[in-house]
Structures are given as C-alpha cells and as structure tokens.
C-alpha cells in the first residue's frame, strides 16, 4: 500500500510556500542592489510570485 500519493498535495503546498518565502526575501533585498538591477529583477520576481501564488490557489485543500 503506497500512501505517498495522499501526501503529494501537502508536499507540493509546502514546496510552493517555501519558494514564495524565498521570493519575498529576494524582493526585500532588492533595495540593496543598484537601480538597473532592481529594474531588471523586480518584474521577473513579481511574475514568478504571481505564478506560484496561482499554483497554490489551485491546489486541493
């Protein structure tokens, strides 16, 4: 009997939450970079954040 499929959504939710936390920290540290880097990185980080949040919303509860 394999219970791993029962826990898959829990692991995926955890992984998404961890990645969202990493992105939040990266966005907080953008102020330490020069303006050019901020302008390059912010849209990519925000796009990734939106994607992960969307994935999190679509997970079964």
Automatic annotation (TrEMBL):
It comes from the Bacteria. This is Uncharacterized protein. It comes from Dyella nitratireducens.
């Amino acid at each position: 009997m394999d219970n791993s499929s029962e826990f898959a959504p829990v692991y995926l939710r955890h992984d998404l939450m961890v990645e969202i936390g990493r992105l939040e920290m990266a966005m907080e540290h953008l102020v330490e970079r020069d303006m050019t880097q901020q302008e390059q990185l912010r849209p990519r980080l925000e796009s990734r954040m939106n994607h992960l949040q969307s994935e999190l919303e679509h997970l079964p509860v």
